[in-house]
């Protein structure tokens, strides 16, 4: 395989593959900064992918599909919030329940919406916007400067989120809740409110990541379109060391291996497809082995908060 000849294709696929991971990982960043480890991202993305596709196809408005998909993600994540914040249930068990419930709802909706007519599984795709001049740069121009508006907004979100956590009082409150919620409560911070807000943001962004797959990445909806990206997003937060800029780098790196998978499938068509599809997941495991134990994240991550304790 001529690597340099296929590099522009790989970079284009890298950017497209990085955006849903970046959106979902930024949502998880808000959650974990508030002390909530939400492993239900896969389910939230599945809901966002289906609702975004269905509403976008039915109304002909992809942005409306995105907004309704994000609302559906928030709604499903409120179940997680109620169980883990109000009832202090185990976060891992609740997240796994979301991963079982949400894709089942999406599959049920898919069977109703598509039925026996496979043509209903094809919708519209958001158009790319090429930035004059920049999109003509060799190698990287087409990959980074010929994207959909949603992709551009996602990348703009990175410095905004980074600034929010470092300089805004509410961002510092998030970080305080994730490190020591009982100390934060004594300072007048409403810990329960912060955790619920984190769940709202996480649900909206993770669902947006799922919706990106069906309104930007491909116009065709299939059951299981998320394909484990929710779990990769969890690894991206760890690999990015719980910072927005680090998550951006990690998302692009995971996206690169996803793009490499696409390029190898096109180059070696006789080889089993699933062999190449394993590449991003193998890298995820390797990343967790080398980075998962060294950086534990916020100290109160995954721990239930009982307001009466001091």
Please characterize this protein's 3D structure:
The structure is a single chain. The protein has 310 residues and is mainly alpha-helical. The protein has a single domain (3-123, 148-291), classed as ABC transporter involved in vitamin B12 uptake, BtuC (Orthogonal Bundle). It has helices at 3-33, 41-59, 62-86, 91-113, 141-144, 149-167, 169-179, 181-186, 191-217, 229-239, 244-267, 273-277, 279-291, and strands at residues 128-130, 146-148. It has a two-stranded antiparallel ribbon. Helix 10 runs parallel beside helix 13. It is globular.
Keywords:
310 residues; mainly alpha; ABC transporter involved in vitamin B12 uptake, BtuC; 13 helices; 70% helix; globular
Q: Give me the side-by-side strand order of the main sheet.
A: 1-2
Identify the CATH architecture: Orthogonal Bundle
Order of helices and strands: HHHHEHEHHHHHHHH
Q: Could you tell me how far the N terminus lies from the C terminus, measured between alpha carbons in angstroms?
A: 62 Å
Number of helices: 13
Q: Please report which band the strand proportion falls in: under 5%, 5-15%, 15-25%, 25-35%, 35-45% or over 45%.
A: under 5%
CATH superfamily: ABC transporter involved in vitamin B12 uptake, BtuC
Output the CATH topology.
Answer: ABC transporter involved in vitamin B12 uptake, BtuC
Average pLDDT score: 90
Helix content: over 70%
How many beta-strand segments? 2
Largest sheet: 2 strands, antiparallel
Number of domains: 1
Runs with pLDDT <50, length 5+? none
The top level CATH class name: Mainly Alpha
């Amino acid at each position: 395989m001529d690597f340099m000849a296929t590099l522009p294709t790989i970079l284009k696929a890298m950017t497209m593959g990085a955006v849903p991971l970046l959106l979902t990982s930024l949502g998880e960043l808000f959650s974990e900064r508030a002390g909530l480890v939400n492993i239900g991202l896969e389910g939230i993305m599945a809901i966002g992918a289906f609702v975004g596709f269905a509403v976008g196809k039915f109304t002909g408005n992809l942005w409306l599909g995105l907004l309704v998909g994000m609302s559906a993600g928030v709604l499903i994540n409120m179940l997680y919030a109620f169980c883990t914040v109000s009832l202090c249930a185990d976060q891992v068990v609740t997240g796994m329940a979301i991963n079982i419930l949400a894709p089942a709802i999406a599959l049920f909706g898919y069977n109703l919406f598509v039925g026996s007519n496979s043509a209903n599984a094809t919708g519209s795709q958001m158009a790319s916007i090429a930035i004059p001049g920049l999109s003509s740069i060799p190698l990287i121009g087409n990959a980074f400067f010929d994207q959909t508006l949603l992709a551009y907004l996602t990348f703009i979100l990175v410095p905004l989120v980074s600034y929010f956590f470092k300089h805004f009082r509410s961002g510092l409150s998030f970080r305080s809740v994730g490190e020591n919620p009982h100390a934060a409560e004594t300072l007048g911070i409403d810990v329960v409110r912060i955790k619920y807000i984190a769940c709202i943001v996480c649900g909206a962004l993770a669902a947006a990541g799922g919706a990106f797959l069906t309104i930007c990445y491909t116009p065709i909806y299939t059951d299981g379109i998320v394909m484990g990206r929710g779990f990769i997003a969890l690894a991206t937060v760890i690999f990015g060391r719980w910072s927005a800029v680090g998550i951006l780098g990690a998302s692009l790196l995971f996206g690169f291996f996803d793009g490499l998978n696409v390029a190898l499938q096109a180059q070696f068509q006789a080889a089993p497809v699933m062999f190449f599809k394993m590449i991003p997941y193998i890298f995820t495991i390797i990343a967790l082995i080398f980075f998962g134990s060294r950086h534990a994240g916020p100290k109160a991550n995954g721990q239930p908060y009982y307001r009466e304790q001091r």
